User: Fold this.
Amino acid sequence: MLKITQPEYDAIRHHGEETYPYECCGVLLGSLDGETRNVTKTVRCGNTRSDSPHNRYHIAPQELVRVQRQAREAGLEIVGFYHSHPDHPPRWSQTDLAEAHWIGCSYVITSIESGQARITNSFELAGETEENKHFADEAVNVVAETAAIANESTG
Amino acid sequence: MKIYIPTPLRQYASKQDAVDVHASTVGDALSKLTSTHPDLKRHLYTDDGKLRAFVNLYLNDEDVRYLSDKENTSVKEGDHLSIIPSIAGGTEQVLLHRITRSGSPGSAAVAVDGASWPDHPIHERN
Assistant:
C-alpha cells in the first residue's frame, strides 16, 4: 500500500497539471513500514525527454543522485516515483514496465485530462529480478498530515 | 570509500544503505562489493558479466561512463560511489491514436497499454 500525505498527493497532481500537455516526473520520499510505503515528501524532477515530452519521461541520474543525498540527510528513503499521463489512462504502459527497475518501489501515475488532474493510481513494481518483475495494483491511502503517518507507524 | 546502495538492492546487501570498501578503482570497489554480497551480482550484471544498461554509476557527482578511465578510474578514501538504476517510462499515445483511427481491434491497445485497462484510452481522438 502507498500512504501519502494530502499536501504531497495534491502536489504531484498539480505538477502534472502544470506541465500539461507534457509528462511530469518526480520522486517519492518517506519510509518503509512492512509492505507500506509512507510518503512524507515529494521532489519534482525535470523531464529530460525533450524530444518527446508528451509521452515519455526520464529523470537524469545525476538529479537522482542529488535527491538520494537529500533524502539521506533528511533521514528519508526513496520509496517510489511519480509521473503523469497527459490525455491517457492512469495505467502503466509496456514502456513504463520495461523501463522500471526499482523493484519494491511504488510507481504513481496521474491521468491529466485536458489539463485537469483526474485519477491517480499507484503500482508496486513487484517481483525479484528484471526477468520476473511486474506491476501490481496497490491501494493509495491519502492521510491528512505527516503526523498521521508517524503515529500509525509507531503505534 | 563508501558505496551507496539504492532501495531495491538493499535486501541483497544485508539491508544496508551504504557499504564501506577499501578499493583502488571503481571496478575494484564493485568487485569487492559483490564478493562480500554475492546476491547483488545478478542484479547489477548480465549473465555475460556486463553492467546492466539501466545501472548508472556515479563517482561523487561524475557519471563513470563519461570518465576517461571509466571503471578503471582511481578512487580514494572519502569518495562516494552511487548505484542508481534509471527512471524512465511513458505512454504509447501515438500508437494508440493510429490503432483507433485505423479501426484495428482494441486488443492491440491492451497489449500496448497494460492488461487490466479497457481497450481504449480515456480520450478517443478524432
Notes: Residues 6-19 of chain A form the longest helix (14 residues).
